[in-house]
Request: fold
Amino acid sequence: MRENAIDTTEATVAAAYCLQLGDDALIYAQRLGEWITRAPQIEEDMALGNIGLDLLGQARVLLTRAGELDGTGRSEDELAYLRDERQFHNVHLVEQERRDFGFEMARMLWFASYQCELYAGLVTSSDETIAGVAVKAVKEVDYHRDHARQWVLRLGDGTATSHVRMQEALERVAPYVSELFKDDVVSVAAAQAGVGTLPSSLWDKAFGHVSLVVDRATLALPADPTWHSRGGREGVHSRPMGHLLAEMQHIGRSHPGASW
Amino acid sequence: MSTPAVKGDSTERSWPLWEVFVRGKRGLSHVHVGSLHAPDAEMALRNGRDIYTRRQEGVSLWVVRSTDITANSPDERDSFFDPAADKVYRHPTFYDVPEDVEYL
Reply:
């Protein structure tokens, strides 16, 4: 049905769109997985692990759909484990190395605020798979955003030390934020086709939420950074990406086709 | 936040213990499922959600500071519970139930 019903251009656009949404989720899931046994408490290991698994679940459906739509028939595993760095289309924010817990909560606050608006918009996507992921993911990312919010409030309005470190974390994350909301070629085409939403249209609400949290946490939103990350959507990544992929992919590449 | 959530030298010991109660479904009571550490009640609820309801075990969650629970001492067990042992008349077993009474 799919092959006949969808115009190839539209299918190609939808495939590329699924791939970049799926890559954001997959790479951030990988980063969050690194927290297991390293979070401040075992309770937090569980929380971050759950959040990472939610994202991995989103990535699996989106990557599978990308493989169906692009005509190559690649599976989710082939897409996750056998692509090289330049073929990943995630933003730089999610590939940055794990730092302190404050950094993770600042990154999560921004990313989940973005995803909340993204999936709210995608519920009406003309692609049924994307719409299906969105319906399920809206509730998941709402919880992720709340988790980050709880911690940013507590750390910002906690002790003098936690306040300073949380503020530093916001500054560190700031250069990576605008890339999430930049209208790239694929998103624009996807929005025109009714498959996706324009990233720039998500900014107002996402920014509104983050600034409310930051304000309540007695923190300050950083001034406009002197540089901004860019290139992720085109497959141009920052230094940590290669190491992340090496760790994520080496088992799959060492044992091609292995299963249990 | 009136109380600092995380102290500068935060360790596992510095977070209070909470007891977690989950209600499996509407109509059932909350049942004690375990305990966890959390800096405050709101985080305890969220940690409870992440640890004890990740397989859809519940529809409602309570958390209570462990120190707020008053329990009897094991030493008092004899005086607390043994006196009930020989009071069979407290069991509702001395009534004849008419056969046509349903749901009893």
